[in-house]
Amino acid sequence: MLLWIVLFALVTSPLGLLGRRTPRPLIGWGLAVLPLSLFVLLALQIPLIASGGRLDEAVPWVPAMGLELRFSLDGLGMLFALIITGIGTLIVGYAGAYMANDAGLGRFLVYMFLFMGAMLGVVLAGNILTMFVFWELTSITSYLLIGYKHDYPDARRGAQQSLLITGIGGLALLLGLLILAAAAQQVGVSVADSYRFDALIAAGEQIRQTALYAPAVALIFLGCFTKSAQFPFHFWLPGAMQAPTPASAFLHSATMVKAGIYLLARLSPALGETLLWNGTLVAVGGFTFVFGSIVAFRQYDIKALLAYTTLSMLGGLVMMIGLGGKYGAEAVVTGILAHALYKSSLFMVAGIIDHEAGTRDLNKLGALRRYMPITMVVTAIALLSQMGIPILMGFVSKEWMLKAALESSLPAPWPLVALVALVIGAVGYIIAAWRLFRNAFLGEPSPTVQKHHLVDPKWSMLLSPAVPSALSLILPLGLLPAVSSLLSPAASAVYGAPFTFELYLYREVNTALLISLGVIAVGALFATQQQRLAAHKIIASIDGAVVFDKMIEGLLAFATGMTRMIQSGRLRTYLLYVVLVFMLFVGTPFVAYGLDDIRFVLDENLRFYEVVITALIPISVIATIAARSRLGAIIAIGVAGAMVALIFVLFSAPDLALTQLLIEVLSTVFLLFVFSVLPSRFASLSPAWVRWRDAVIATVFGVMMALLVLATSSNTDFPSLAPWFLANSLSEGKGANVVNVILVDFRGFDTLGEITVLFIAVLGIYGLLRFRRVKPDERASGRDAQTIMPGEDLNL
Amino acid sequence: MSILLPIAIGSLFAGAVYLLLRRSVVKLFLGLTLLSHGVNLLIFSMGDGLRRGVPPITAADGTTLPGTTDPLVQALILTAIVISFGILAFILALAYRANQAVKSDDLDDMVTTDRL
User: Is the four-CA dihedral B12, B13, B15, B21 of positive or negative sign?
Assistant: First the structure.
């Protein structure tokens, strides 16, 4: 069933193209049936999961290497899958209304459905390699969605940033996961099982003892921190707000950015309970939590404000995983649910305000309470939940986070660090939430607001934020036992052992409650000063995006410089680099290892004429180079060719000698013909130092080649193929001339290739010589008079 | 094999590289010719020894003389000779056309627009 759920989401994605039709709101809600059906299907499994059961499915591929498509459903996967399909249903319906005037809705919905399938694959995967494939797929679909408005430079920039950052993280993650599997194999897990989550968790204790543990954890951290926008990789998330609001609400708050949280939570029973794991997570998560919430209330773009609170909350969840223990696990799953509800609602409200008022700028809004009362109520509930005001889901979540910090069993500084981070961050949340509400809904209407005729949107648009907002209120009031029975198996998966817990709104006056109330009081005090605080210079954000852009610019400049240097457009530069690289990579190992192989064997049967013939070759080479006239060069190079032919004659190669002589004669005739139209003397084109440099390079190259020949001719590592050809030539190939039999029979395809090359060369020559006259105005545009194309005559 | 053939091969390669690095199309052509000679002799020296008077031809009954020379390298060179001739002829035609078009055999007079 799980395989079919993922496949269904991916395969039905082209149906999103229906979004091209009108009426778009109706199409949107019609298509919302697809995720809704998956939601219902998953919800039917809740009783099984709540009773501690799990579903497992595997499609083996290469079992010996542990390659399989494995899906499993447990409490944690169930929580995420319900959020993905549930919020997904609302988002798809909302998108139809929000983008009613956007012709690209079809494309957008296809990406959204693809993403939904990929994200379901991540949370349902039971094999780390299966998970990784879907993990990367979410990065790609996220890239497509951020770059949806690709005619805007900011959208392209945001998309590129997110792809690069999550892409780099993805590579690190893959490496980390492979190291993790290798560590599992070291401690005796079979290769076939070593990629399975359950096997890794079972072997967790031994894996933590291996030397591979630390590098694996570091790389997995890198993958999760980039995906979940932890400091210092946070900056792609605000940039990702270039995506259409439905995508931001879905990917960049409720689901995709939680993939890193998911993986950390999933692996924490296997890898947790070490100082490396817990300390890093509390430190990074805690810092991100505080950083995000402080930067958030400086923002005046509603979506940017929400983006920073989102990355802050992601930090909070990372911190909870770091705190560990039962309370940590409970806080993680409760926080995920509470955040998904209120933040998706807030994003959709931001979209509504943008849609109705034409701006998301808090300085240009105000007094929306008069025009959009229902929107205001929806927003208020969600914001109260974010603030952590009692009787809302956010309050329960914050309560559990404080409890996790207070009850943590970590060594000394960490619980306190987490507590301080929680208090500061929570105050920031209250300021940010109040700032949003105060500037958008209260106060006096700004000129922008007065200009537009503002009303509450239709229910097709308002329903989507209203549902999660209402749930933030209804769940804690009436349904906490039901929620607890859903969250208990999820928390068990994070904790690593089955247990149950009960969420409650109020039980007794304890430290957590007092801190919570204190935070609200302090937050309220600061919130009244929000304008002054936001203007404060000291709370300046460390803009990671600038650093990132500088890095990318530097990389591009370096690449351009390299390309300019190597790709000069001159043949001799390319050749120079080829020769130098060859000398470096062949010459260095040869000098290091091969010099002993050089054998200077003197042939005692050497005849006088052989010495003369061989010696004439270097002489004719020098003569060719030194020749001042073209005729001299032709004569010199003809001598070299003839001497090569004579060497073939002397050393038992009559066929080669025949061919060489024939070709030599032909070449000379051609040369004489062509050279007759060229100036008869060579001009000295290069400066002297270049000629000397080239002479040195050429000499070194020649000496190296000569030594290589000396070294290799003594090589007897491989048996010669010659005896086989000699023995089989007559019997198999029916020919006494073995060379000819090889050419036409044993290696006939070589000859076919040779004929093909000749044929192509003939075609090329024919083309070059035939097309003589092309009028200049018939040339393709964009090239100047210096450009020569085959068959063009520019001097016409 | 004595030291003479490696010297000849080395000199062919050295001369080829020097000529290939020149600006003249004609010298480029000469360099390629020398390069193909050098490569052919290099392959020739890679067989199982150079011997005199024992060409790779079998007797009527299929037997060969002891120490018959390596036929495989000869077959490879034969292919190489013909292919390099094809390429050289093409370059000659190219040089001929380029000379017609720009009245020069200097490669730098034939710069293209695809600069960075």
Answer: positive
β-partners of residue A127 are A196
Classify residue A354 as exposed, middle or buried by CB count within 10 Å of its CB (0-12, 13-18, 19+).
middle
> What letter does residue B103 receive in the DSSP assignment?
S
Which domains does chain A show, CATH number per domain?
272-536 (no CATH), 570-723 (1.20.120), 724-796 (no CATH)
User: Which DSSP letter does residue A789 get?
Assistant: -
pTM, entire model: 0.69
The residue type of A795 is N
Q: For chain B, which domains are there?
A: 4-51+68-107 (1.10.287)
Q: What local confidence, expressed as pLDDT, does residue A536 receive? A: 59
**A365, A359 Cβ separation under 8 angstroms:** yes
CA-based nearest distance A550→chain B, Å: 21
Q: For residue B19, what pLDDT is reported?
A: 93
Distance CA A494, CA A269 (A): 6
Alpha-helical (H) ranges within A530-607 are 530-535, 544-566, 571-582, 588-589
* Count of all residues that appear for chain A in the document: 796
Do A754 and B83 count as a contact with CB atoms less than 8 A apart?
A: yes
Give the one of A710, A739, A783 whose C-beta lies nearest to B6's C-beta: A710
Contact status, residue B49 vs residue B13, Cβ threshold 8 Å? no
Q: What are phi and psi of B48, to 5 degrees?
A: -85, 60
Contacts across the A-B interface (CB distance below 8 Å): 314
Euclidean distance between CA atoms A368 and A443, whole angstroms: 9
pLDDT in tens, A401-425: 998 888 888 887 888 889 999 999 8
| DSSP-derived secondary structure for A20-77 | GSS-HHHHHHHHTHHHHHHHHHHHTTHHHHHTT--EEEEEEEEGGGTEEEEEEE-HHH
Please return the burial class of A84, using the count of CB atoms within 10 Å of its CB with bins 0-12, 13-18 and 19+.
Answer: buried
Residue B23, classed as helix, strand or coil, is: coil
Percent pLDDT > 70 in chain A is: 93
CA distance, residue B90 to nearest chain A CA (Å): 6
